[in-house]
Design a protein that fits this description.
Largest sheet of chain B: 2 strands, antiparallel
Distance between the termini of chain A: 19 Å
Structural class of chain A: alpha+beta
Number of helices of chain B: 13
Order of helices and strands of chain A: EHE
Radius of gyration of chain A: 14 Å
Shape of chain A: elongated
Structural class of chain B: mainly alpha
Radius of gyration of chain B: 21 Å
Largest interface: A-B, 54 and 65 residues
Order of helices and strands of chain B: HEHEEEHHHHHHHHHHH
Oligomer: heterodimer
Shape of chain B: globular
């Protein structure tokens, strides 16, 4: 385990729609309002991953 | 690390897609994945995520109304994340009901697939008690592999002869070698694996593991690095990148964007856990 406990937020000039989609095969629903509506409609829990290391247009997170 | 680790695990992915609505966002609204609505929702239930310096955020399992049903640490292992997901569903059965599509499933193959994706591998195997097609035999072998039923894996694979399924059968046998820790057999099983196969990146990852555990460290690193050039990234490319960095960043505790030691995928470093496969197969 690496001794990281605190992350600093930093800003990027990119916009939300630019972030390269993850390729794990997890079916991410974006943006959040759409995910929340889907969870309500389908009676499912949200699986939320907040990211605090800065997301980049190239897909880094 | 989450993407290369738990989120790249088949069981986590299948359960996430079948029972959860998954969303990620950047806590900074200006980030590429910034989402003010998500930030407001999450910081209301996790006040520690407000401000400009925050602890690494957990994976949250939460209702649309904001009730937390479970969570897993940002650096949690695959097993911990998967267990948290299953516990959340067990504790909140109202979110675990069959979907309309699941109720409409008719064939044993469909029912087996649903059961497997929900983590009920024995039920899935029971649905395929009498496979009728080579795809069904292959899927039965896959299920039995996750159950560690090696004799059943092999007996199912004996029915898989079709050219378009040969690579899948090879890969299932390779998994058996890996999980037994038979690295020489794993290497031999993956020799000259077709580069255009749908299992090619998976084969490349495990070939790298075989070489690593056989002491051929440089060859292992080269094998994993080559996967980064794959046109479409996938879980095995992520995991290979993580393995490469685990070896190369061994002993380091800090990283910077100016570091010459970026991963083959261009990542600065992997915080948290090392790739566990470098210590050997998981114990089951």
């Amino acid at each position: 385990m690496k001794p990281f406990t605190i992350l600093l937020l930093f800003a990027s000039a990119a916009t939300a729609g630019d972030c390269k989609r993850d390729r794990t095969g997890i079916d991410w629903t974006l943006p959040f309002t759409e995910a929340r509506e889907k969870a309500k409609k389908e009676h499912r829990l949200l699986l939320i991953k907040p990211i605090a290391f800065g997301t980049e247009k190239s897909g880094g997170w | 690390m989450l993407r290369a680790g738990p989120f790249s695990d088949e069981r986590v992915r299948l359960l996430a897609n079948r029972r959860f609505v998954c969303v990620y966002f950047d806590l900074s609204d200006d980030g590429a994945a910034g989402d003010p609505d998500a930030r407001q929702f999450v910081t209301k239930i996790r006040r520690e995520l407000r401000g400009n310096s925050v602890p690494p955020p957990s994976v949250l399992l939460v209702s649309a109304e904001g009730v937390i049903a479970g969570e897993a640490d940002n650096f949690a292992s695959t097993e911990v994340v998967y267990a948290a997901m299953r516990k959340a569903l067990k504790d909140h059965p109202e979110f675990d009901a069959e979907s309309a599509a699941e109720k409409a499933a008719v064939t044993p193959f469909e029912k087996a697939r649903i059961a497997f994706e929900l983590g009920k591998s024995k039920t899935a195997a029971d649905w395929l008690a009498r496979p009728e097609t080579e795809e069904e035999w292959l899927f039965l072998a896959h299920i039995q592999r996750w159950r560690g039923k090696w004799d059943e894996v092999e007996s199912a694979l004996e029915h898989v002869k079709r050219d378009d399924l040969v690579d899948d059968a090879r890969m299932e046998r390779a998994w058996a070698h890996w999980l037994r820790g038979d690295y020489a057999a794993l290497r031999d099983a993956l020799t000259a694996f077709p580069a255009d196969s749908n299992r090619a990146t998976e084969a490349g990852y495990f070939k790298g593991l075989a070489l690593h555990h056989l002491g051929e460290k440089k060859a292992a690193l080269s094998t994993w690095k080559a996967l980064a050039a794959t046109p479409e990234e996938d879980p095995w490319v992520y995991r290979a990148d993580w393995a490469w960095m685990t070896v190369r960043q061994s002993g380091k505790s800090s990283f910077s964007s100016g570091d010459d030691d970026r991963s083959p995928l261009g990542r600065i470093g992997y915080m948290g856990r090392d790739n566990p496969d470098l210590k050997g197969p998981p114990r089951r």
